[in-house]
Structure prediction request, 254 residues.
Amino acid sequence: MLVRMPPLLQLTDVSYTYGSYLALNQVSFDVNTGELVVLAGRNGAGKTTLLRCIAGWNQITAGRVDLQGTSIYQVERVMRRNLILVPDTPPFYNDLTVGEHLQFIAQVNRLVDWRGAAQDLLKRFGLTANQAALPAALSRGQRYKLALCMALLVDPQLLLLDEPFGPLDPFSAHQLWDDLWARRERGKTVLLSSHQSPLNVRPDRYLFMEGGDLVADGTPDELKDALHAGSNSLDDLLGATIAHVESQSQAQEV
Prediction:
């Protein structure tokens, strides 16, 4: 008998409120092992809140978040080993250097033979010469690159990234996309939020949010056909999604 494995990540009717403000409204979707999924939407759509809820940083108001078939609140220790969120403004220890941050992460996660991988990450993200620098001496883009190096060194099953391309130069953005795609090909999973993406790259799926609602979910080509978009680029698909949502809202008001 074939046993069907649950999705790696499953959200069921997830809602979250800030006081009386409904930031997430019954959001449901699955992410399977080995997918690279982009979460997109306008400012205030709920993307960052959603990622924080998935990571357990925000306690959801209602619904359920499952990792490998079990609630994240029941398997917090397992979740911490298998899920990492890199926020748009990563925190650091002010008195630890770039190199010491990687050493700290390796020790906390009990990594073995990690130094070669750490040096490779620093080289790929242009931080080799900054190993003795403190975070305060780095630019915003360099700080985000350090956070990426720390997360990629641990190599979790599910990597969550909040607006990773915003702080990066075009070369580094392509470098990151190549690294994320390589993770996908090794069976790892990536869910990232973004207003933009490197040119001529496509994820497995897009999830589009608007006003706390999940309003579209599909592959680039599926969404292009369904929304009659000009192309399957992020800009065209997001624009077509917003236009579709606004037209539905106007029709309901009539």
